[in-house]
């Protein structure tokens, strides 16, 4: 049954993609198709990356309320980006090809995420909520540091740079798509390869270890994966805190399975479907370009509160 | 009271630095130094002190009311609700006098804070760290609503001013609303015992003859009014209301009759210090005090939740 | 004297209190006993005016407790609520001083201070007076909270499981002191789970099950082995060993 639903989800996503591509298509066909194609590819990639990253992350920390966005992975990426500009200078970075600089940033991000979050997550779920709060405040701290670095960098033009701190699905550069797509495919493949170990880890750290899982190593591998996935989505459109929570919660509700080989693709498809559908509704039907990320934050926040309050009665 | 004297001495020194610091040299500048002081420096210094005191006091009141030390006005949706109220007035009655705008913002802030209070009664109490997380998301939802509304109505620049506490625009005639905080501080001092009683929990407080409902409403009203005044005049500042009451509580306990002046003075000093730091870090440009304090405050908060709960000397 | 008439409270489909009618004379230590979920704490909170019942009245010394405002109520009875989870960072003396708050409402006089010292002395808290409550052990903390209720100097003291999670030494310690308090003319009413404690210290007893009063009155005339066995649905035997009441299983 889980398999059928996964296929249905994939077909639904395909239909949505076609809808976004072909809705009220006018001449010049080639140009408009290319424009829409770039945007569509970005949306699908961001949604898939965020959805998959969330499932992996939730299993690693053993909590379905958390997402990489809530604990500040995207803030870490933006902070590192600002720091790179600060230390190397904008002109040096501009001379590096966009694809190469993206891969370099992703590599730095992987290291930093493993160092920072690994430090806090290693002790595992002994004191989970404390960990969560630490991570959330770490996110706030990173966001604060990022804007501080940006201010130090170029105090007069801060306002322009700050716009990048809000997710924007409108402006995606086509040149970023190829390296991002490459990283995304590798990370997705790796996450499916890790799926059996993640199934075991979902039983809890102690149980998984008594069954012979090298939990600490898995946490590190998983964090590296999440770091890559978050880099992909943040580099393409900027931070979207609650998309992952929405995608993962909906995927879990739709797919009656705890197996990661099913859950990860389901959540990835769901993330992509949410973005494509949202973009279609807001851009094509309502004509409001910018509202999508705000609405996702809004609805995602409500889902979070509902999950907390429901957990109390459960 | 040697500790109060000590804190006030530090505050006085900071105030002198703040008065002497600026683009114009007071002693050999082209402008009349008396006028610079009266029009710009003194208002700015007073505004920072009043806002800091107000935030710290609002912090301790909300902490006692929900019996959770890890909460502050920025984690209860209060500033975001005030922004929603302000946006509504700006949209529907742009010509309303400042007093009316202020009143509506305070009312909206009260509704938002009361909403958080209602929510807090449903969050499991066993885990004190869950509530700030819920508050963060609740504030995020209200913030997304404010952002969405502002986006749709082209008022985005207002919101970004309200969101980022900054004293660089303070001049004589533009900060006087902040004196409301001085009045609130006096009121709070009268209520000090009742606020301490709130911290003992509903059953105990009522058994000791406290009109619990009325006191909670009064406390929430004070938090809402103080926060709304600060948002309207200088913009929201994170973490002040969290860090200051916690430091005072750790060092000198929870007897508010004795400690409210310490909390107010320390809050004033922290915000003034952040403002001074923001002025010198990237001379001659300015970094908003809120940006500086977001980094300092997040760091201090991380220390607070991880520092061992050892013995606290008195 | 406490007069309860027709007290009824429904939560959802559950009758937490089912037409409770009872007259409780002043003086001595009265224990409310019964199995978990019998409605003991609810009854106590109703008596204290913290829960408003669906029907019925509670009169304490001829005043309808649910018509009194909180400040007046706090002069007639003190309540130690169950399970104080959050402990503020106050010293023992500061916390006990809040027991006098209903009397002075923020302006303590010399007699308030004297009564706080008396309460500290009565519960052997003078050596701990300057310590922070959060630094104390569970047993000491409970003693501080009882002392705060005592400092309130009300004719009635209501205590909801004051002995929860205390070891026998601390439990006995608190009960000995409450016994003295009752001997000095106050009325003490407490919910207690430990039958041995109830048997030893209570002069009278209220037995509750499923929201109803099974029996109430002076211990000797009310409590029998049969009653206890019915109350707890398990065979229990009341025995007298060298003048002390004890409870045996089976």
Descriptive account of the structure:
The complex is a heterotrimer of chains A (314), B (314) and C (250). With 314 residues, chain A is an all-alpha fold. Chain A has one domain: Orthogonal Bundle (ABC transporter involved in vitamin B12 uptake, BtuC). Helix content of chain A is 79%, strand content 0%. Chain A has helices spanning 2-22, 29-61, 73-88, 90-95, 98-121, 128-153, 158-162, 174-201, 205-210, 215-237, 243-254, 260-285, 291-313. In chain A, helix 3 (73-88) crosses helix 10 (215-237) and helix 5 (98-121) packs across helix 10. Chain B contains 12 helices and no strands. Chain B has one domain (38-303): ABC transporter involved in vitamin B12 uptake, BtuC (Orthogonal Bundle). Chain C has 250 residues and is an alpha/beta fold. Chain C is built from 10 helices and 12 strands. Chain C has helices at 40-47, 70-76, 92-97, 101-104, 110-122, 138-151, 168-183, 195-201, 219-222, 225-232, and strands spanning 2-11, 14-24, 28-33, 55-60, 63-64, 77-80, 156-160, 187-191, 204-209, 212-218, 236-241, 244-249. Chain C has a 6-stranded mixed β-sheet with strand order 6-7-8-3-9-10, with helices on both faces. A 4-stranded antiparallel β-sheet of chain C has the order 2-1-4-5, covered by helices on one side. In chain C, strand 4 (55-60) and strand 5 (63-64) form a beta hairpin. The longest helix of chain C is centred in the C-terminal third of the chain and has 16 residues, at 168-183. Chains in contact: A-B, B-C. Chain A binds chain B through residues 65, 129-130, 132-134, 136-138, 140-141, 143-145, 147-148, 151-152, 155-156, 162, 241-242, 288, 290-291, 294-295, 297-298, 301-302, 304-305, 308-309, 312, and chain B through 70, 119, 122-124, 127, 129-130, 132-134, 136-138, 140-141, 144-145, 147-148, 151-152, 160, 238, 281-282, 285-287, 291-292, 294-295, 298-299, 301-302, 305-306.
Keywords:
heterotrimer; A: 314 residues; mainly alpha; ABC transporter involved in vitamin B12 uptake, BtuC; 13 helices; C: 250 residues; alpha/beta; Rossmann fold; six-stranded mixed β-sheet; four-stranded antiparallel β-sheet; 10 helices; 12 strands; 35% helix; globular
**How many domains in all of chain C?**
1
CATH class of chain B: Mainly Alpha
Straight-line distance between termini of chain B: 13 Å
* Number of beta-strand segments of chain C: 12
Q: Which geometry of chain C do the CA atoms define?
A: globular
| CATH level-3 fold name of chain C | Rossmann fold
Find the CATH superfamily of chain B.
ABC transporter involved in vitamin B12 uptake, BtuC
Oligomer: heterotrimer
**First and last CA, distance of chain C:** 37 Å
Write down the secondary-structure element order of chain B.
Answer: HHHHHHHHHHHH
Give the helix/strand class of chain C.
alpha/beta
Percent helix of chain C? 25-40%
Biggest interface: chains and residue counts? A-B, 37 and 39 residues
- How many strands, which pairing sense, and closed or not: the largest β-sheet of chain B? none
- Describe the main β-sheet of chain C briefly: 6 strands, mixed
Low-pLDDT sequence parts of chain B: 310-314
- The unreliable regions of chain C are none
CATH homologous superfamily grouping of chain C: P-loop containing nucleotide triphosphate hydrolases
CATH class placement of chain C: Alpha Beta
Tally the helices of chain C: 10
- Architecture (CATH level 2) name of chain B: Orthogonal Bundle
């Amino acid at each position: 049954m889980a398999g059928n639903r996964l296929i249905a989800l994939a077909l639904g996503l395909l239909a949505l993609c076609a809808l976004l591509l072909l809705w009220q298509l006018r001449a010049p066909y080639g140009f408009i198709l290319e424009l829409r194609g770039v945007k569509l590819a970005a949306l699908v990639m961001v949604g898939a990356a965020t959805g998959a990253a969330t499932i992996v992350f939730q299993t690693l920390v053993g909590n379905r309320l958390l997402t990489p966005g809530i604990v500040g992975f995207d803030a870490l990426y933006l902070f590192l980006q600002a720091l790179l500009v600060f230390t190397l200078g904008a002109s040096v970075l501009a001379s590096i090809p966009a694809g190469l600089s993206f891969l370099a940033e992703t590599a730095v991000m992987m290291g930093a995420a493993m160092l920072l979050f690994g430090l806090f997550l290693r002790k595992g779920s002994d004191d989970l909520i404390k960990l969560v709060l630490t991570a959330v405040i770490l996110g706030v701290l990173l966001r604060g540091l990022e804007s501080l670095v940006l201010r130090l960098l170029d105090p007069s033009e801060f306002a322009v740079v700050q716009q990048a701190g809000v997710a924007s699905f409108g402006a995606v550069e086509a040149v970023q798509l190829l390296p991002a797509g490459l990283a995304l495919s590798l990370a997705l493949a790796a996450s499916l390869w890790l799926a059996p170990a993640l199934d075991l880890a979902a039983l809890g750290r102690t149980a998984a270890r008594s069954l012979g899982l090298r939990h600490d190593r898995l946490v590190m591998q998983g964090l590296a994966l999440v770091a890559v996935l978050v880099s992909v989505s943040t580099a393409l459109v900027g931070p979207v805190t609650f998309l992952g929570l929405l995608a993962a919660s909906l995927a879990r509700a739709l797919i009656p399975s705890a197996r990661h080989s099913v859950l990860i693709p389901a959540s990835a498809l769901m993330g992509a479907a949410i973005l494509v559908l949202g973009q279609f509704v807001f851009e094509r039907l309502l004509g409001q370009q910018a509202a999508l990320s705000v609405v996702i934050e809004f609805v995602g926040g409500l889902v979070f509160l509902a999950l907390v309050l429901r957990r109390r009665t459960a | 009271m040697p500790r109060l004297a000590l804190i006030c001495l530090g505050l006085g020194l900071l105030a002198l630095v703040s008065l002497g610091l600026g683009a114009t040299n007071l002693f050999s500048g082209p402008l009349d130094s008396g006028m610079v002081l009266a029009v710009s420096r003194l208002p700015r210094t007073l505004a920072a002190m009043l806002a800091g005191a107000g935030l710290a006091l609002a912090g301790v009141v909300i902490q006692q009311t929900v019996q959770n030390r890890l909460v502050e006005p920025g984690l209860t949706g209060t500033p975001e609700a005030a922004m929603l109220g302000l946006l509504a007035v700006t949209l529907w009655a742009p010509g309303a006098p400042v007093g009316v705008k202020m009143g509506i913002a305070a009312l909206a802030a009260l509704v938002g804070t009361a909403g958080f209070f209602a929510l807090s009664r449903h969050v499991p109490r066993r885990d004190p760290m869950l509530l700030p997380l819920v508050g963060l998301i609740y504030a995020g939802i209200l913030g997304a609503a404010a952002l969405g509304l502002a986006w749709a109505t082209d008022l985005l620049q207002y919101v970004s001013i309200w969101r980022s506490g900054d004293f660089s625009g303070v001049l004589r005639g533009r900060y006087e609303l902040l004196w409301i905080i001085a009045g609130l501080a006096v009121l709070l001092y009268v209520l000090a015992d009742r606020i301490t009683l709130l911290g003992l929990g509903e059953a105990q407080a009522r058994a000791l003859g406290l009109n619990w409902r009325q006191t909670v409403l009064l406390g929430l009203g004070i938090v809402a009014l103080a926060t709304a005044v600060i948002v309207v005049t200088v913009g929201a500042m994170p973490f002040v209301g969290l860090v200051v009451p916690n430091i005072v509580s750790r060092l000198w306990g929870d007897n508010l009759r004795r400690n409210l002046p310490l909390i107010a003075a320390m809050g004033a000093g922290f915000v003034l210090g952040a403002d001074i730091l923001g002025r010198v870090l990237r001379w001659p440009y300015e970094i908003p005090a809120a940006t500086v304090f977001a980094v300092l405050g997040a760091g201090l908060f991380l220390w607070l939740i991880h520092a061992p709960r050892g013995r606290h000397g008195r | 004297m406490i007069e309860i008439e027709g007290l009824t409270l429904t939560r959802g489909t559950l009758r937490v209190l089912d037409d409770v009618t009872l007259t409780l004379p002043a003086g001595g230590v009265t224990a409310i006993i019964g199995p978990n979920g019998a409605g003991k704490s609810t009854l106590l909170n109703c008596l204290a005016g913290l829960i408003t019942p669906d029907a019925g009245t509670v009169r304490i010394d001829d005043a309808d407790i649910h018509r009194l405002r909180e400040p007046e109520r706090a002069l007639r009875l003190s309540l130690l609520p169950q399970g104080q989870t959050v402990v503020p960072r106050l010293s023992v003396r500061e916390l006990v001083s809040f027991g006098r708050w209903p009397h002075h409402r923020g302006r303590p006089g010399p007699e308030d201070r004297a009564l706080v010292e008396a309460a500290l002395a009565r519960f052997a808290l003078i050596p701990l007076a300057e310590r922070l409550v959060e630094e104390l052990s569970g047993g000491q903390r409970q003693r501080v909270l009882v002392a705060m209720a005592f400092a309130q100097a009300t004719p009635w003291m209501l205590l909801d499981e004051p002995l929860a999670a205390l070891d026998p030494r601390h439990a006995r310690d608190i009960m000995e002191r409450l016994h003295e308090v009752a001997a000095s003319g106050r009325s003490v009413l407490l919910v207690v789970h430990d039958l041995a404690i109830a048997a030893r210290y209570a002069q009278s007893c209220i037995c509750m099950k499923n929201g109803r009063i099974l029996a109430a009155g002076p211990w000797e005339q009310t409590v029998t082995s049969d009653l206890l066995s019915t109350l707890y649905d398990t065979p229990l035997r009341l025995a007298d060993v060298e003048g002390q009441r004890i409870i045996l299983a089976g």
